[in-house]
Amino acid sequence: MNETKDKIRTFIVDNFLFGNEEGLKDDTSFLDGGIIDSTGILELVSFIEETFSISVDDEELIPENLDSIDNVVAYLERKTG
Amino acid sequence: MTFSKDILNIDPEKETKKICERMREIMISQLKRRGIVVGVSGGIDSSVTIALSAKAFGSDRVVALQMPERHSADETLYLSGLVADHFSIQKLHEDISQILEAVGFYKRYDHAVRLVVPEYGEGWKSKIVIPNVVEKSGFNIFSIVVQKPDGSILKKRLPLKAYLEIVAATNFKQRTRKMLEYYHADRLNYAVAGTPNRLEYDQGFFVKLGDGAADIKPIAHLYKSQVYQLAEYLDIPGEIQERPPTTDTYSLAQGQDEFYFSLPYDQMDLCLYAKNNDIPIEIVAKELGLFSEQVQRVYNDIDTKRSTTRYLHLPPMLIEDVPEIKAHP
To answer: I need a surface site. Which of B15, B128, B148, B203 has the fewest CB within 10 A?
Structure first.
């Protein structure tokens, strides 16, 4: 799962923070931290669907699955496990 | 005062006088133009704005610009003409379909929809919608609703690329209209009015450099319920006062509360007022007949929209201040 976490972190840092990962912890809320807005969530969903060859269902579009690096990793574990 | 819908009651005569005085002051001291152009849609906000403009500057100093296009509702032209005639205001008609055709709007829009619904084409209609935060928690992800020529409806969640392309194409409409408003304003040495109410202004319900662009926004401080109170006082034709709020932007009829706001405008007004004035959630919930968790979700949604649309309000950002040039002298 470290590889998964690295991929998510790299995507977040490159795509939303222009390479500046200062202050981004694995449990930092993307929304509360002002890192990702609702369009950003769509970008994240596109990224994980393409990278991990999954389809995110409508009812899975909730903060518990997508609002931090830890949450995304746990969601992917459940989804692919 | 007890919290109820009456809390948004205003003295419309006093408010009208205040707005008109301020409009004249701004025109004389800041804008220095000779009159005002108002894009009219037949909706309540532009109708009230045009009535206020006529009171502030005189009917002969106001131009009502009607700018329908192929997807506009049938009654748009009739209602916008009705209000202009009612106040003896000159109306100009610019059908923007040809301009939209020339910039490729219709092709680009249809292409974007076909990313999600490949069979979309001639005779189909569509709109985009968001889930209602009152009924459902989660992220606000847009879906497209299409109506087939046989009348049947299909709804699909929009992936990033299709969503962005649909919104980008649709924004041509508001920007084309604003371009024409400024054309006529420049030609006449007039200013351009923006017509947002407080809900729209606060929640970023406008297109940057489209309907968000203006020299003066006379009703941006008023909750939508208060705009209706002014409409009654200003004697806006009844057909306009009774028309439900619509975006009149997509080919399929779309209410503002399915595209952007979580509740009908009168309830949304009360939630925004309550949030702005620290009214406890339990009291708001009781008044609106909602659960506290639902009001909390609306409050959260208000914060999210303020945050995600902040950039729409921002002027171009400078790296360093240029002290000789101030936006508000």
So the answer is: B148
